[in-house]
Amino acid sequence: MIPTTPTTPASPASAMTPMTPAGPGRRGSASPAETGRSAGRRGREPGGPGALLDAGPYQGYVYAYPHKTAYRPLEPRPPLREVWADEPQDSLFLYLHIPFCEMRCGFCNLFTRTGAPGELVTAYLDALERQARAVAGALDSPRFVTAAIGGGTPTYLSAGELTRLLDLTERTMGVDLRAVPLSVETSPATATADRLAVLAERGTTRISIGVQSFVDAEVRAAVRPQKRAEVTAALGRIREAGFGTLNLDLIYGIDGQTERTWRRSLEAALEWEPEELYLYPLYVRPLTGLGRRARDWDDHRLALYRQGRDHLLAAGYEQVSMRMFRLPGAGAAGAGSGSGGAEYCCQRDGMVGLGCGARSYTSRLHYSYEYAVAAGQVRAIIDDYVRLAPQEFGVANVGFRLDGEERRRRHLLQSLLRAEGLDEAGYRDRFGTGAAEDFAEELARLAERGWLEQAGAGRLRLTAEGLARSDAIGPALFSGRVRELMAQYEAR
To answer: Which residues, if any, are the signal sequence (predicted)?
Structure first.
């Protein structure tokens, strides 16, 4: 049930200190002990969650909660065997991270480096194998039900290096990659026939390729030196290899992009009949090439989003989230397609990450290695990773501990930001309380704006306009503790 905002003011005992104004890379502060209800009271104060909702539709992409900029060094560093000791291990996601690309696009803020020499790639795979052995030794008969290889660009690896990666993963982690959904990211320049043949033979079910735009002038504006002919050839090879799911990534909001050119890219993408499409808004990011210019183009991006959404819905796609669109019936074809496979539940199940840019999730601890965006810092972190001794992989280094309130908030975020919304009974079964009770004022603020609705008995979901504003709603639902840690993080 959607709560309504109480008309009585908060008592003096529950009043909170106003938060600082928020914006990209800048978040307000709050007490680490702040709960869902007390966080809701802050929304009426300057700079609080309510202000985030009104600051514009593009505050930040919430692809995980909490963000890595809220992670901190863990002292003492907990052994992985203790971290995973009481965790369910019968429905896990295995994620492998390859932090290499042939080029760095102007819009990119991923943890990746370009131009890695062959000896560094070999050293990285050596280190990943050492890490896999340590992680496997800390787990108790894990069962992986889905897997993904991301980056970076995993197909930066040669066909032989991809074979080694898949071999060590299966051998060390005890997973048959042919028996689970497996998603792999690629690029037009690296989707070569020999690499795709390896991936197809080893059971890859989903290939995701970053096209961004089918208009050459737009990809040049996004500092991505590729030609449409190169994209067309790569897509032909992918379709010829026979993967069950093809995902195309497109970007809107690029300099010079119009409704007409955006429609050209959408129509060109649909010619390949992809099972999935992701539509990403362009973001100005600190420390990335395009982040060095400032321009307000929220209205333009929102108009292009609505155009893209309507175009894909009219073409028979269903909307899974603000970014993701999928053909009906294609849901279980590959990991990484939103739910991660038929048996994996992102709100509940754990994830094991291998590689220096990968995260791992348990119910109470999210952990990884250091995080950076700037090229020099990324290179330093990779160089440190490849030199780590085997025993160093047996502990968690950097992370975030989730208390009960943060677990509830994560479940809420991951549910509401999907088109299907929040199953209220499932939430209550897991936590023993109702989401409408735990986050009364947050949900009331969304409903007041027309962004949240009751979709039948027992389900809360964002309206079409609410889904369009997912990148404002997500950050507004962050806890005060997470916003404070993110505000203290020094970008590098």
So the answer is: none
Q: What is the mean pLDDT of the chain?
A: 85
Q: Which of 271, 301, 326 is the last residue of a domain?
A: 326
Residue 365 covered by a domain: no
Q: Last residue of a domain, which of 278, 298, 326?
A: 326
414 and 474 share one domain: yes
Mean pLDDT throughout 413-427? 97
Whether 1 is in a domain gets the answer no
My answer on whether 311 and 275 are in the same domain is yes
108-117, 368-377, 400-409 — most confident range: 400-409
The predicted structure's pLDDT at residue 47: 55
The CATH number covering residue 109 comes to 3.20.20.70
Please give the pLDDT value at position 405: 97
| Cα separation, 40 vs 444, whole angstroms | 9
